[in-house]
Known about the structure:
It is a single chain. The protein is mostly beta strands and about 120 residues long. It has one domain (about 5-120): YopX-like domains (SH3 type barrels, Roll), CATH 2.30.30.290. The chain contains 2 helices and 9 strands. It has a 5-stranded antiparallel sheet. It has a 4-stranded antiparallel sheet with strand order 2-1-3-4. Strand 6 and strand 7 form a beta hairpin. It is globular. The relative contact order is 0.18. It holds the Pfam family YopX.
Amino acid sequence: MILECRAWDKEKQVMIEWSDIFFSDMSPVTGWGEGVDYERVDLMFHTTKKDINGKKAYTGDIIASNTYDGQPMEIKWDDKQTGFYCHDSNNNEDDHLNAMEIEVSEIIGNIYENPELLTR
């Protein structure tokens, strides 16, 4: 399995895709060479799941939960449970909304570009 991620560039306020982070000698997006400035970016890891529309799901993505009538939930990694879980706007984890929830829900945004989605 290949670890795949994308990153939020905190300085430029843009999403950087996987290929732009790691697979170019000089990325036109970041201007980085061989190294990645991890202080400048927040990495968002691929869950290996896709939403109901076939879109890849990453940590930090927000789904409209099919289980809870479209309630927005953030996809997070849980170190203690060593798995991906969905959290509501109060950061409450629902043990029943694990990574499988992603496959029956729709990704509607992410916490960087659409933070307001978690406040509704």
